[in-house]
Amino acid sequence: MRKLSLIFMAVLVAALAGCAGDTTEPGGTLTTVQQLQLDATSAGRTIVLVWSAVTDDIDGYEVYFKTDGTGDWSKVGDSATTTFTDTATNAGTYSVRAYKDTNFSENYSNEVSTMPTVINASYTIVDNWAPADMPSGFIFGATEGTPGMASQPGFVQDIYAYDDDFKGDTNISLYSGNKGTFGNGRQSYFQVPLGNGYCDPAGTWYNTSYPLYTGDSVVFVGLTDGSTINGYAKMYGLSIAGSSTEHGTELTFSYEIQVGQQGAGYLTVFTSNAN
Q1: Are 52 and 34 spatial neighbours (Cβ–Cβ below 8 Å)?
Q2: What is the 3-state secondary structure (H, E, C) of 167-205?
Q3: Domains identified in the chain, total number
């Protein structure tokens, strides 16, 4: 009897192994979805995906997402058509596959990214109490940032650091480049973080200054060409240091930037980075 039981178990294991490779599991026999792309109507955190229909008899499509473009796919929705809209809370990558009952596309579609440009550098600017040769202004470049002297008319900053209080404390504010004492730069806007991964174009923005506190890690900045929005940046990894001697207050940070989105507007989704 024991021998018969062992034989039965062996047959059962073999049968289950065969099911594991069945075409009804993910990685099935349906056509792979082609030409997935970000539609030109995408703007802010509204991500509109479109793709080409498969010719198979299907029930619909499943849409998948990787936060920050890494890790495993996570399903974010279904669609009976060849378009899908996601209200994103993070940047990342999307992919689609068709399904019929428990059968799926042979492979995931091509990937579409909503990732910002992550600038792999750390920058430091100082407030007005620091020596005059230390940078207080900053320009958010598409590939790198540029610290500079906000007090110099020739430096057209997006933002600059300023302390309306006194030297040596940890109080520091970000000023729009065209406001306040050193307002020879461009208009910028500031928003309190709603989450580390996105800002809201229709939300509340501060157009003059934004006070920072030692517990802050992220702030969003709306960038302009002087008057019209032409991108968004996320400052993260904020570190504030005060000194009672030679220097004023220092602000160290990194940033990500979203520029160049075609169509309806600029994307305002970013990575989950905070520090």
Answers
A1: yes
A2: CCCCCEEEEECCCCCCCCCCCEEEECCCECCECCCCCCC
A3: 2
Q: What is the pTM of this model?
A: 0.86
- Domain extent for 225: 117-258
Last residue of a domain, one of 113, 143, 175: 113
Beta bridge partners of residue 118, listed in sequence order? 256
Query: What's the rounded Cα separation, in Å, for the pair 128 and 149?
Result: 10
Question: Residues 53-89: pLDDT tens digits?
Answer: 999 999 999 999 999 999 999 999 999 999 999 999 9
Q: What angle do CA 104, 105, 108 make, to 5 degrees?
A: 120
User: What's the start-to-end Cα distance of the chain, in Å?
Assistant: 63
127 and 109, same domain (yes or no)? no
pLDDT value for 148: 97
Regarding whether 168 and 38 lie in a shared domain, the answer is: no
User: d(Cα 242, Cα 187) in Å, to the nearest integer?
Assistant: 27
DSSP state for residue 158 in the 8-state scheme: S
Residues 92 and 105 in one domain: yes
Are 99 and 214 found together in one domain?
no
- pLDDT score recorded for residue 104: 96
- Local mean pLDDT, 10-residue blocks, the chain (275 residues): 36 36 56 96 95 98 97 96 98 98 96 95 93 92 96 95 81 95 96 94 96 94 93 96 72 94 82 94
How many Å apart are CA 160 and CA 176, to the nearest integer? 7
